[in-house]
Design goal:
The protein has 221 residues and is an alpha/beta fold. The chain has a single domain, classed as 3-Layer(aba) Sandwich (Rossmann fold). It contains nine helices and five strands, in the order E-H-E-H-H-H-H-E-H-E-H-H-E-H. Strands 2-3-1-4-5 form a five-stranded parallel beta sheet, sandwiched between helices. The radius of gyration is 17 Å and the shape is globular. The protein binds cytidine-5'-monophosphate. Cytidine-5'-monophosphate binds next to helix 2, helix 4 and helix 8.
Length: 221
Amino acid sequence: MTPFVIAVDGPAASGKGTVAARLGDLFGLPVLDTGLLYRAVGVLTERAGGDLDDAAAAAAVAAGLSAAQLGDPALRTRAAGELASRVAVHQQVRDALLAFQRDFAGQPGGAVLDGRDIGTVICPGAPAKLYVTATPEVRAERRWKQLSGQGEPVGYADVLADIRRRDERDGARDAAPMTQAPDAELLDTTEMTIEQAADAARRIVEAARARWQASEGTSGR
Ligand code: C5P
């Protein structure tokens, strides 16, 4: 049986992380927040005094990354998001992180991965794909609340500017630009509560799972 992979892509603070975590709980699958990989590469490259624009230097950090380094709270900061999107433009960095993501997706029962290029590049054959989005203003409000809750003092306008800059950089880059896969279901969470978004995602994935089970010739797991 092919692993049941759920690909959850979308821009920053769209709700994709929450949706991915809920789907993991509901379907009993492990979840990988792939943004953490890029955040770790950005933060560790900077800590080592490396040049973020130097693809080879950042790729060397990516190649040496271990899962144990992903729990660092410093990866959740506003600055780390910016560093991540700068190193994420390098194809060499993306190549160095590919095997880790594919191995995670290849676990026997399947997995949930959230990011920007899961449905397009990492797992193009995933049986369930969602593209989660919301307006920049709503996303900025959510991220601003989250950062304030973490004790990071920042104004809403600055968070909105961050979001717009990251959308632009992630969408315009040559290497695996952020985009909706043609076969991904669009989930616009602008007007939704967390519960509503999680419920809509569950319905999309249940339908995808039914199609996947039919194509696998199995009657359920
Ligand atoms: O999802 P998160 O906001 O943590 O991602 C941080 C940055 O990492 C993104 O803005 C993007 O540049 C990069 N990223 C990526 N591909 C992924 C996940 C994240 O390029 N699959």
